[in-house]
Design brief:
- The complex is a heterodimer of chains A (338) and B (181).
- Chain A is of the alpha+beta class.
- Among the domains of chain A are: 53 residues, Uridine Diphospho-n-acetylenolpyruvylglucosamine Reductase, domain 2, CATH 3.30.43.10; 101 residues, CO dehydrogenase flavoprotein, C-terminal domain (Enolase-like, domain 1).
- Chain A has 13 helices and twelve strands.
- In chain A, strand 4 and strand 5 form a beta hairpin.
- The N and C termini of chain A lie far apart (45 Å).
- Chain B is of the alpha+beta class and 181 residues long.
- The longest helix of chain B has 14 residues.
- Classes of the chains: A alpha+beta (338), B alpha+beta (181).
- At the A-B interface, helix 2 and helix 6 of A face strand 5, helix 4 and helix 5 of B.
- The structure holds flavin-adenine dinucleotide, iron/sulfur cluster and FE2/S2 (inorganic) cluster (2 copies).
């Protein structure tokens, strides 16, 4: 790990000022991603500004018919909160499918949003990587890319965003509250993460001196018809190869409203408004789900090692929508697929 | 508060050959004993325990959050001590495997259950498994063997002692009065 200085401010404004004042200063929350990356010299901050003592950010509060999740709420506290479990079970399931209990006890909502890709080359400072060192190239495009993206890629980067929580937040149309030197603003989750384009070094639209203070959940939580289906190389404690958050509002046998978001396939949680529109008003049939899946994946592109993800995603979408429509969400402990 | 290490005479918790550490004074209650210490900000809780406190029961497996060997209880919750910077945990209570048994040496029921079920082979993952299992019981979300397996997935065992680990935890759960579902 490189040498750095450390401070632990007691107010959000102070934290923002501390990061703004020093180039190379970074926020640290649970540390489960940042410390890992620092041990590999991928991140080399000059100063760590610990957000852990900022007051009021560790609460989940009622807000405008929905819930406001403070940036310091841990992944465990979020997933097991009775209000989240009752009203937003999709979010609870997604969070519990990620990492391990120990990691979830330390990981925070803000840190989860801003966790970085697990691309092997990004982690290996002995190789080029446009995300780590802009302009050096992307060895993954023609290299080992089993875990990489199939949607929204660019020639400069084919990395995925690894979060499970964010996939559920995308389906739920959450938004992110941030504070910066210019004051507060709110970013829709769909606009928070970005596609790599020719700037893969930027994961999100958050400014370097902006801090995440909370995530807002709108009132609609789809508690009756939802599923989070996560497919991976081992059944627990592994990142998604493909994951699907599906949330439906049913009207008898047909779909009144549909939300569909994919993880493990792109540089951001992947939503397709056209596919959701196609499902609206349709009977919940396998044919409708297959059409939606085909639409989501029509521009999908494989890079060799990850080409299997296209077919995997197609099947996962159909299965997730079927589970959601039937009201039989994917169990967390029992990995037998319902 | 940064403290000059030369003035305090504290050992710098940094690898040899690097620049002198900027030290921070922190207080931790480790296995019931309150201790003040100076730490460099890049010292992980795991390294602090093992290298500074001579509490080597907590193991370093991967040092990257991927194995669970370094699991300790922080304010009653299990975490991976390898990814926690000690300086960020100022004021916390830390419980390691050394602090589980009673003062007279009587094993914690989870330790006793591991012994009874022979829930280890080489023993390297065991302190982490036991601390994790104590955390699991406290959390109260596991009721079945399936749920134990899922909620113990953060602890790998290269010897593959998993069936006996699950049996030991089931026994400790029953002793603690947790009804199976
Ligand atoms: C072995 C392993 C397996 C994992 N498996 C999964 C998985 O299956 N699914 C999954 O989703 N995740 C997984 N994770 C990742 C885990 O979810 C993240 O590490 C965690 O959510 C990060 O949260 P943190 O609070 O520890 O963030 P930190 O490591 O403290 O910070 C991460 C980033 O966020 C920034 N940051 C933190 N808080 C704020 C804030 N309030 N405002 C602005 N910036 C901020 C930091 O500057 C840093 O860049 C895994 C991690 C490990 C180590
Ligand atoms: S995919 Fe992105 S993160 Fe991975 S090597 Fe290419 S540029 Fe780097
Ligand atoms: S040593 Fe901490 S998880 Fe492996
Ligand atoms: S007993 Fe050897 S690693 Fe678990």
């Amino acid at each position: 790990m490189n040498r750095f200085s450390y401070s632990r401010p007691g107010a959000v404004s102070e934290a923002v000022r501390a990061v703004q004042a020093e180039a190379g200063a970074k926020f640290i929350a649970g540390g489960t991603n940042l410390v890992d990356l620092m041990k590999y010299d991928v991140e080399r901050p000059r100063r760590l500004v610990d957000v852990g003592a900022l007051p009021g950010l560790d609460r989940i509060e009622e807000q405008a018919g929905g819930l406001r999740i403070g940036a310091l709420v841990t992944n465990s506290a979020l997933a097991y909160d009775p209000r989240i479990q009752e009203r937003y079970p999709l979010l609870s399931r997604a969070v519990l499918s990620g990492a391990s209990p120990q990691l979830r006890n330390a990981a925070t909502t803000g840190g989860n949003l801003l966790q970085r890709t697990r691309c092997y080359y990004f982690y290996d400072t002995g190789t080029p990587c446009n995300k780590r060192e802009p302009g050096t190239g992307c060895p993954a495009v023609n290299g080992v890319n089993r875990i990489h993206a199939i949607l929204g890629t660019s020639e400069h980067c084919i990395a995925t965003h690894p979060s499970d929580m964010c996939v559920a937040l995308a389906a739920l149309e959450a938004s992110v509250e941030v504070t910066g030197p210019g004051g507060d603003r709110r970013i829709a989750l769909a606009d928070f993460h970005r596609l790599p384009g020719d700037q893969p070094e930027r994961d999100s639209t958050l400014g370097a001196d902006e801090i995440v203070t909370a995530v807002q959940l709108p009132p609609k939580g789809f508690p009756a018809n939802y599923t989070y289906l996560k497919l991976r190389d081992r059944q627990s404690y592994a990142f998604a190869l493909v994951s699907v958050a599906a949330a439906l509002e049913m009207d008898g046998g047909s779909i009144r409203e549909a939300r569909l978001a994919l993880g493990g396939v792109a540089h951001k949680p992947w939503r397709d408004p056209q596919a959701e529109a196609l499902l609206r008003g349709r009977p919940a049939t396998r044919e409708a789900f297959a059409e939606a899946a085909a639409l989501v994946l029509k521009d999908a592109r494989g890079y060799g090692g990850n080409t299997f993800k296209i077919e995997l995603a197609r099947r996962a979408i159909i299965r997730a929508l079927s589970q959601a429509a039937a009201g039989t969400p994917q169990p967390i402990a029992d990995k037998h697929i319902a | 508060m940064p403290v000059d290490p030369a003035a305090t005479g504290a050992a710098a918790a940094s690898p040899a050959g690097r620049a002198p550490a900027m030290q921070h004074r922190i207080t931790l209650t480790i296995n019931g004993t309150r201790r003040q210490m100076e730490v460099a900000p890049w010292t992980t809780l795991l390294d602090l325990l093992r290298e500074e406190m001579e509490l080597t029961g907590t193991k370093k497996g991967c040092d990257h959050g991927q194995c669970g060997a370094c699991t300790v209880l922080l304010n009653g919750q299990r975490i991976n001590s390898c990814l926690a910077l000690a300086v960020t945990k100022d004021g916390a209570e830390v419980l390691t495997v050394e602090g589980l048994a009673a003062a007279d040496g009587t094993l914690h029921p989870m330790q006793a259950a591991f012994v009874e079920h022979d829930a280890f082979q080489c023993g390297y993952c065991t302190p982490g498994q036991i601390c994790s299992a104590v955390g699991l019981l406290k959390e109260g979300h596991a009721r079945s063997a399936e749920e134990i397996r899922e909620l113990m997935s953060g602890n790998l065992c290269r010897c593959g002692a998993y069936p006996n680990i699950v049996a030991a935890i089931e026994q400790a759960m029953q002793q603690a009065g947790v009804a199976a579902r």
